[in-house]
Amino acid sequence: MKKERFLSKSDAHYLVKDAEKILSQDRRRLLCQGLTLGGIMMLTGCDISDNADVENVLSRMSRFNDRIQGFLFSEYNLAPEYTAADITHPFPFNAFYGDEDIPQVEGSDYQLEIRGLVRDTRSWSLPELYRMQQESQITRHICVEGWSAIGEWGGVPFRHFLTLIGADMRAKYVSFRCMDDYYTSIDMATALHPQTLLTLTWN
Predict the structure, then answer these.
(1) How confident is the model over 9-43, as pLDDT tens digits?
(2) What Å distances lie between residue 50 and 2, 53, 56, 127, CA to CA?
(3) Which of 21, 26, 37, 109 is deepest in the core (most CB within 10 A)?
(4) Tell me: the pLDDT tens digits for 38-54?
(5) Count of CA atoms in the C-beta half-sphere (13 A) of 129
(6) Residue 155 region, left (φ>0) first, then alpha (ψ -120 to 50), else beta?
């Protein structure tokens, strides 16, 4: 049975506080951001598994959100950063499997495979990635399932990595597939944002 997650009062409070730090006072900007966030909030808790019409609406709303977010996006808008005292303990474990089924990855054998519109498609080992420029930040992770938590993330600035492998920055999206078969994507503007990391360490 799928476990439903909903936004807690505590999470909602912190999300609003973070939004207050980011949102400008410009009315047009606030309206656009409100429309984008409002569409998401309106659909919280919706069961779309067997409803093609709702899937259609969600798809159109997602495209609308993409356009609005593209209009609002700026590399100068940074997520709020926190102190070590703010880190969430325990940090929530979230996956489509239980704790007992977490896949074990042997770090010495790990290879990051590269595909797509890039000049250099060779694979990368963990030691190679650790030798690259590293940065860290303490920021809030906001899950699409409606919860949030603060953690410390460290790794390679993703813009630096994409530049190094000769990625075509004209591509619209960067997709990821994990060894546990989870997959997702982010748009190129987000991939190039100064706070986006190829994360190698956590807390």
Answers:
(1) 555 566 556 555 554 444 444 444 444 444 444 44
(2) 15, 9, 12, 45
(3) 37
(4) 444 444 454 545 566 66
(5) 24
(6) left
